[in-house]
Amino acid sequence: FSVELCGGTHVNATGDIGLFRITSESGIAAGVRRIEAVTGQDALRYTRGRDFAASSAAASLKTSVAALPESVTRLLEDRKRLEKALDQLRTQLAREKAGDLSSQAREINGFQVVAAQLDADPVALRKEAERLRDSLGSAVIVLASGEGGAVKLVAMVSKDLAGKTVHAGNLIREIAKMVGGGGGGRPDMAQAGGKNPDKIPEALERVYTLVAGA
Fold this sequence. Notes:
By secondary structure, the chain is of the alpha+beta class. 43% of the residues lie in helices and 24% in strands. The protein is built from 5 helices and 8 strands; from the N terminus they run ββααββαββαββα. The strands form 2 sheets. A 6-stranded mixed sheet has the order 3-4-5-6-8-7, sandwiched between helices. A hairpin with a 3-residue loop joins strand 7 (182-185) and strand 8.
């Protein structure tokens, strides 16, 4: 088959076009692709700009342009490791600040319930809820954070109770209303947010009432 590529103005010969550089390619409809390119002096300027950007990046990373992909990959791997270490430190600090939350557990209907405030980021909040659920066995865990003036809620329910006795999504939906927010999730895990941190103690106390009536 034959395909004509026309830039708007026909030329006498392909040599008149000179350098041709594709700058982007995307899909604009079913079975239709869009290609954008530059030619002539614009293509030369585009190429020089790319070379300058690559050289600048290589200089910043103290490597060569040829080794730039490997250096960037290594940099991203280092960042991932540091982010993981930072998450672990945040979780540890949150635990130390809150103390042993398992000591706050109340036995309701034959299982353990913990509803407590732990001012931490969402990742640390979720990890601590998982840890408490796993350590207490048959349990319902609801943790709330008012860090930064915004409410974050997470609920964890052990598998033996999830969806049968207590539904984490339904539980967190009810208490989220009390802190001016909303959310939901699965029977075993749910998250929500809100905008009234001052209502956290009241919402957490409501957890025990809701679970007792489940």
